[in-house]
Amino acid sequence: MKLNDIRNKPGATSSRTRLGRGIGSGKGKTAARGVKGQKSRSGVAIKGFEGGQMPIHMRLPKRGFNSIFRKRYAEVNTGRLQAAIDAGKIDAGATIDADALVNAGVVTHLHDGVRLLGKGDLTAKVTLKVAGASKGAIAIVEKAGGTVEVSAEAASAE
Questions:
Q1: Phi (first) and psi of residue 132, to 5 degrees
Q2: DSSP 3-state assignment of 5?
Q3: Most exposed of 44, 101, 139, 156 (fewest Cβ within 10 Å)?
Q4: Cα dist. 72→112, 148, 151 in Å?
Q5: Can you give the residue range of the structural domain that contains 133?
Q6: Is the pTM higher than 0.70?
Q7: What does DSSP assign to residue 108?
Q8: Close Cβ partners of 92 (under 8 Å, ≥ 6 residues apart)
Q9: Are 74 and 113 spatial neighbours (Cβ–Cβ below 8 Å)?
Q10: How high is the pLDDT of residue 153?
Q11: How high is the pLDDT of residue 152?
């Protein structure tokens, strides 16, 4: 088989319906849009329009904001960390940092660093170097005999 010989099986694809091409086609005249009015024409954008009444999204008060300086962390649970150690993807004896988690496939995108969360159990004694960690996660790691080092630039931002 060659790449230029690859084809779909017969009947696998169907050509698009050509609208507005005569009443014999079954999709002629109004082209399946109904009749008349704004919605039968192209370029319609009336989402949220309430017939001239003030729309609900404009009647309700605005609240809160999203800070443009917020940090996005890749979140790792203690249970997921233990699963990676059990699978042999992470060496528990070495210091586990963001790069080690990416190489093991535990984290795909680092964003602004890794934040450790305390869902699941951890039995291995590990040394972690992360951008952030919850109190519960730190307690779980220390109970197992490990340590958590939270980087200084992340701690000052929180």
A1: -160, 160
A2: helix
A3: 156
A4: 5, 20, 15
A5: 74-157
A6: no
A7: S
A8: 85, 124, 125, 126
A9: yes
A10: 65
A11: 67
Q: What's the rounded Cα separation, in Å, for the pair 93 and 90? A: 9
- Are the C-beta atoms of 90 and 84 separated by less than 8 Å? yes
Name every residue whose Cβ is closer than 8 Å to that of residue 107 and which is 6 or more positions away in sequence: 74, 76, 98, 101, 114
Q: For the chain, how many helices (H) and strands (E)? A: 5, 6
Which phi and psi angles does 26 have, rounded to 5°? Answer: 90, -10
- Predicted confidence (pLDDT) per residue in 6-29, tens digit: 999 999 999 999 999 999 999 999
In a domain? residue 67: no
Asked, for residue 116, whether it belongs to a domain, the answer is: yes
Any domain includes 51? no
The total number of structural domains in the chain stands at 1
* CATH number reported for the structural domain that contains residue 104 in this entry: 3.100.10.10
Helix axes 78-86, 135-143, angle to 10 degrees: 40
Q: Tell whether 59 is covered by a domain.
A: no
Show the tokens assigned to 62.
Answer: 């605005």
